[in-house]
Design goal:
heterodimer, A: 122 residues, mainly beta, B: 107 residues, seven-stranded mixed β-sheet, 50% strand, globular
Chain lengths: 122, 107
């Protein structure tokens, strides 16, 4: 079955760190662009970070310098290392896979995990 | 950053009615826009990509149109399972951005 399963969320104090994982099955994370999107409680979707097949990365300004996206091809897993966490980082974090239409691989997302909740609070 | 503004915030309709949702971009995104559906407690689901192409498995009652800065998602006849929140997303430039969403609720 093709799926993404996030883990690693939880309660953390402001200034703390967490590492989120996203285990893929049914496809190789190295074969697609991958991304993290978050959703604060009761709010809309916010793109967080992305990684190309070749390893280049992009970040939202709100997390740049604090979050790091990476992947382990041998474990077929995507990661998001989150440091210096703030209350405003509280959200459900989704990992998602880019679409692929032959040679056309646009930054839209056709497979999402169920999300993992990160709560930043003292 | 490209800002996507969705209108209306809430749309109250009955099953069988036609739904028309709008998404405006602060600058041209050409046709590089997608629409997603999200139900409570679920992840988003891709409906439309590149403004007008239905994603795999999406029913024909969903259609997208527009280019440049003005886009529309139309649901021709609402089914009970279509009541949800809908988001647009642009991919023309970084950062990727989403609209604030339109909630389609049962009238």
């Amino acid at each position: 079955e093709v799926q993404l399963v996030e883990s690693g969320g939880g309660l953390v104090q402001p200034g703390g760190s967490l590492r989120l994982s996203c285990a893929a099955s049914g496809f190789a994370v190295s074969s697609r662009y991958m991304t993290w999107v978050r959703q604060a409680p009761g709010k809309g979707l916010e793109w967080v970070s992305a990684i190309y097949r070749g390893g280049d990365t992009h970040y939202a300004d709100s997390v740049k310098g604090r979050f790091t996206i990476s992947r382990d091809n041998s474990k077929n897993t995507l990661y998001l290392q989150m440091n210096s966490l703030r209350a405003e980082d509280t959200a459900v974090y989704y990992c998602a896979r880019s679409t692929s239409y032959g040679d056309y691989v646009p930054w839209y997302f056709d497979l999402w995990g169920r999300g993992t909740l990160v709560t930043v609070s003292s | 950053e490209i800002v996507l503004t969705q209108s209306p915030a809430t749309l109250s309709l009955s099953p069988g009615e036609r739904a028309t949702l709008s998404c405006w971009a602060s600058q041209s995104v050409y046709s590089y826009l997608a629409w997603y559906q999200q139900k409570p407690g679920q992840a988003p689901r891709l409906l439309i990509y590149d403004a007008s192409n239905r994603a795999t498995g999406i029913p024909a009652r969903f259609s997208g149109s527009g280019s440049g800065t003005d886009f529309t998602l139309t649901i021709s006849s609402l089914e009970p399972e279509d009541f949800a929140v809908y988001y647009c997303q642009q991919r023309i430039t970084w950062p990727l951005t989403f609209g604030g969403g339109t909630k389609v609720e049962i009238k």
